[in-house]
């Protein structure tokens, strides 16, 4: 019976790939380098924006890192309205509160400076604004946003989500019911600004979880089938940087050129999954994260090795290609190359002190099947994964990966 479902899912994905050829993405530009965020003053003023909404993560605003940019704007006669993100994972209420602030101040553009949450809220507020206050819940899922969003410039302060390039916003549902994604090319930000200065104050654990989230973006998009050459190039470049320099970045965020390399890797991994989608690590991570409020990158890091194992030989060709691309031995069989690549990922995770098991309170049969149900709902039939897994198989992954505490 599941064979029939798999055939349906593959047909659905094939139709989606055909339709994707006709989808146009909004214009997107990239600024990068030390102090590049200060160029936002000129970017906004040259476009005639005078009342931008600034969505700021609390830590960025408290640190004062945004002060030079805000001062520069005021000198140019641009009056920013600040929305500082409340603590916790953002949901529909936060997105709506941000929109109301934007509407109250009659803002004409959006700038986000922060991690994934700040950018998710900024995109969501932009959607509500474009639809004049319509309930954000009605846009969940694929291709529900058709109107042009305000000009959006995003400055990531972690190297992980890649949200500064992706057409996706993720929000939490109330009462720990999981997370939902809003996916539409319209959500692609107009401008991404990779300024390594903002990463200097990033603590060690968020830095580690961020780069492992980016690695999961790169690997899941690369494993998905079939992919275009741009997705493959972006995913390989991001994977190489993270595997080679992730350990160094975890130890030190004072090296601005290294910070920029990791920001660029996260950006490329984001661009890869914007076209190539993610896989079951993300689907499971969203389900668990929404209920247990654990960091997204941490969950992906723990789950990724289990998901790679569950794909089995179906993932070998792509994993072997990655192993070759990052300089592994050419003299091995495909299976051995794939295993060598998985060993590289496991070695990085070990060195970065990622647990092999996920401790969740009172985790049992019921939790495994309901989380697997949510993950299957997100991933099937949408994600072009190398092997389509049933709810039962996803529950088995959870039972192997989770330890009840
Ligand atoms: Fe992610």
Q: Provide mean pLDDT, rounded.
A: 95
Question: Gap between N and C termini, in Å?
Answer: 36 Å
Going by CATH, the architecture of the largest domain would be Up-down Bundle
Superfamily at the CATH H level of the largest domain? Dehydroquinate synthase-like - alpha domain
Radius of gyration: 20 Å
The percent range for strand residues is 5-15%
Share of helix, binned: 40-55%
Classified by CATH, the class of the largest domain is Mainly Alpha
Helices and strands in order:
Blueprint: H1 2-20, E1 29-32, H2 40-46, E2 52-56, H3 58-63, H4 67-75, E3 81-84, H5 92-104, E4 109-114, H6 116-130, E5 141-142, E6 151-156, E7 168-172, E8 179-183, E9 191-194, H7 204-223, H8 229-251, H9 256-276, H10 280-292, H11 296-311, H12 316-325, H13 334-351, E10 358-360, H14 365-379, H15 391-401, E11 402-404
Parallel strand pairs: 1-9, 2-3, 2-4, 4-6, 5-8, 6-9, 10-11
Antiparallel strand pairs: 7-8
Helix pairs in contact: 5-6, 7-8, 7-9, 7-11, 8-9, 10-11, 10-14, 11-15, 12-13, 14-15
Fe (ii) ion (FE2) binds near residues 213, 217, 296 and 300.
Describe this protein with a few key phrases.
single chain; 405 residues; alpha/beta; Dehydroquinate synthase-like, alpha domain; six-stranded parallel β-sheet; three-stranded mixed β-sheet; 15 helices; binds fe (ii) ion
């Amino acid at each position: 019976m599941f064979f029939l479902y798999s055939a349906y899912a593959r047909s659905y994905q094939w139709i989606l790939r055909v339709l994707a050829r006709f989808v146009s993405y909004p214009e997107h530009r990239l600024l990068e380098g030390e102090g590049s965020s200060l160029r936002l003053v000129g970017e906004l003023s040259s476009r005639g924006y005078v009342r931008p909404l600034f969505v700021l993560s609390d830590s960025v605003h408290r640190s004062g890192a945004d002060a030079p940019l805000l001062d520069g704007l005021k000198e140019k006669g641009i009056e920013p309205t600040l929305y500082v993100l409340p603590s916790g994972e953002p949901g529909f209420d936060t997105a709506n509160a941000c929109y109301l602030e934007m509407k109250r101040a009659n803002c004409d553009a959006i700038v986000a400076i922060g991690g994934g949450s700040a950018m998710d809220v900024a995109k969501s507020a932009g959607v509500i604004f474009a639809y004049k206050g319509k309930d954000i819940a009605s846009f969940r899922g694929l291709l529900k946003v058709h109107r042009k969003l305000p000009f959006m410039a995003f400055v990531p302060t972690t190297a992980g989500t890649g949200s500064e390039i992706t057409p996706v916003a993720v929000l939490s549902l109330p009462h720990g019911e999981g997370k939902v994604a809003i996916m539409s090319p319209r959500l692609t930000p107009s401008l991404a600004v990779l300024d390594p200065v903002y990463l200097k104050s990033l603590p060690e654990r968020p830095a580690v979880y961020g780069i492992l989230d980016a690695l999961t973006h790169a690997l899941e998009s690369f494993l998905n089938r079939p992919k275009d050459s741009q997705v493959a190039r972006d995913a390989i470049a991001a994977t190489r940087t993270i595997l080679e320099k992730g350990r160094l970045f975890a130890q030190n965020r004072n090296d601005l050129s290294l910070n920029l390399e990791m920001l660029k890797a996260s950006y490329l991994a984001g661009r890869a999954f914007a076209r190539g989608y993610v896989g079951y690590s993300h689907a499971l991570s969203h389900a668990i994260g929404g209920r247990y409020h654990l960091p997204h990158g941490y969950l992906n890091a723990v789950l990724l090795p289990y998901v790679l194992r569950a794909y089995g030989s179906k993932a070998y060709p792509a994993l072997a290609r990655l192993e070759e691309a990052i300089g592994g031995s050419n003299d091995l069989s495909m299976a051995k190359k794939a295993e060598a690549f998985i060993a590289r990922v496991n070695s990085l995770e070990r060195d970065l002190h990622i647990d092999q098991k996920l401790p969740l309170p009172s985790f049992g049969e019921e939790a495994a099947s309901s989380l697997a149900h949510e993950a299957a709902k997100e991933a099937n039939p949408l994600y072009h994964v190398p092997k389509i897994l049933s709810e039962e198989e996803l529950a088995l992954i959870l039972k192997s990966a989770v330890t009840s505490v």
